Amino acid sequence: MGILSKITGRSDREMPFLEHLEELRRVILGSLGAIVVCAIAVYAFSGTVIDWMVVQHVGSAQFIRPMEAFMARVKISLLLGLLIGLPFVMFQIWSFVVPGLLQHERRIVMPMVVFSTVLFLSGVAFSYFVLTPMMVKLLTGFSTTHVVANITVDYLLDFIIKLAMACGILFQLPLVVALLTIINLVTPRFLWSKWRHAIVIILIVAAVATPGDGPSQLILAAPIVVLYFLSILLSLFLSRGRKKDRALGEGAAAESTPAGEAATPPALRAGGGVAPPAARQGEETRDPGGTA
């Protein structure tokens, strides 16, 4: 079964397990193929990208192993290939997952995917344009007259990429809080009551993600703390929306119940129980035998 047949609605039938595995294999191979093709296409520009990154952060860099410069270009090419091929990869994954989702689940998943992508790219941009230059300037500032920084291109790229990935993951905090709120594991009141603990945890995570010096730790922790308090507002919004939907559902259920049926006791609606007093009095007046 092809991807287009899934999207056009001809994939609602249940697929055998082996057919699922075959479709998953196609998705993985197609995604990897797209990334490799894009990486090959941008390899010619990888040297220019490396020069731009080196000049922007450290001015100049060196390589101390024969293969280091080549591997740096391969690494940048694969990274650019992933970024360029990301829309196709996401399309492949979405077309594989969407047939197994219900209609209301699709309405929830799609905005979350977009929200997660925006948060991740925001974290990467913050890392590259704010955090990394400040950290490189701070750390290279410890050099002396006879101790100078000779940074290798491989180390610089690893430093930039790892820090960008860490920031992109940490910026997913609002999405995590939203998911926990939807499944009713956390509430806005709980998040607000634990904000001091959250700040301590954020500082610890920032210390692990950075070299550990105070300024870079605070620079990374500051936006995460802001995102935590924004997550509380998001949790409050989701909680109120869920309560409103529940109230509307209960109101609709009450309106759908007939007035006469609602006023009749359940025992009598089932055909059993004791007759009302007025009915019993009428039966006594119609009793021909009477009492002595």
UniProtKB/TrEMBL annotation:
<keyword id="KW-1133">Transmembrane helix</keyword>
<dbReference type="InterPro" id="IPR002033">
    <property type="entry name" value="TatC"/>
</dbReference>
<keyword id="KW-0653">Protein transport</keyword>
<feature type="transmembrane region" description="Helical">
    <location>
        <begin position="27"/>
        <end position="55"/>
    </location>
</feature>
<dbReference type="GO" id="GO:0043953">
    <property type="term" value="P:protein transport by the Tat complex"/>
</dbReference>
<keyword id="KW-0811">Translocation</keyword>
<comment type="function">
    <text>Part of the twin-arginine translocation (Tat) system that transports large folded proteins containing a characteristic twin-arginine motif in their signal peptide across membranes.</text>
</comment>
<keyword id="KW-1003">Cell membrane</keyword>
<protein>
    <recommendedName>
        <fullName>Sec-independent protein translocase protein TatC</fullName>
    </recommendedName>
</protein>
<dbReference type="GO" id="GO:0033281">
    <property type="term" value="C:TAT protein transport complex"/>
</dbReference>
<feature type="transmembrane region" description="Helical">
    <location>
        <begin position="218"/>
        <end position="238"/>
    </location>
</feature>
<feature type="transmembrane region" description="Helical">
    <location>
        <begin position="195"/>
        <end position="212"/>
    </location>
</feature>
<dbReference type="Pfam" id="PF00902">
    <property type="entry name" value="TatC"/>
</dbReference>
<keyword id="KW-0813">Transport</keyword>
<feature type="compositionally biased region" description="Low complexity">
    <location>
        <begin position="249"/>
        <end position="280"/>
    </location>
</feature>
<feature type="region of interest" description="Disordered">
    <location>
        <begin position="249"/>
        <end position="292"/>
    </location>
</feature>
<feature type="compositionally biased region" description="Basic and acidic residues">
    <location>
        <begin position="281"/>
        <end position="292"/>
    </location>
</feature>
<dbReference type="GO" id="GO:0065002">
    <property type="term" value="P:intracellular protein transmembrane transport"/>
</dbReference>
<feature type="transmembrane region" description="Helical">
    <location>
        <begin position="76"/>
        <end position="96"/>
    </location>
</feature>
<dbReference type="GO" id="GO:0009977">
    <property type="term" value="F:proton motive force dependent protein transmembrane transporter activity"/>
</dbReference>
<keyword id="KW-0472">Membrane</keyword>
<feature type="transmembrane region" description="Helical">
    <location>
        <begin position="108"/>
        <end position="131"/>
    </location>
</feature>
<comment type="subunit">
    <text>Forms a complex with TatA.</text>
</comment>
<feature type="transmembrane region" description="Helical">
    <location>
        <begin position="163"/>
        <end position="183"/>
    </location>
</feature>
<comment type="similarity">
    <text>Belongs to the TatC family.</text>
</comment>
<keyword id="KW-0812">Transmembrane</keyword>
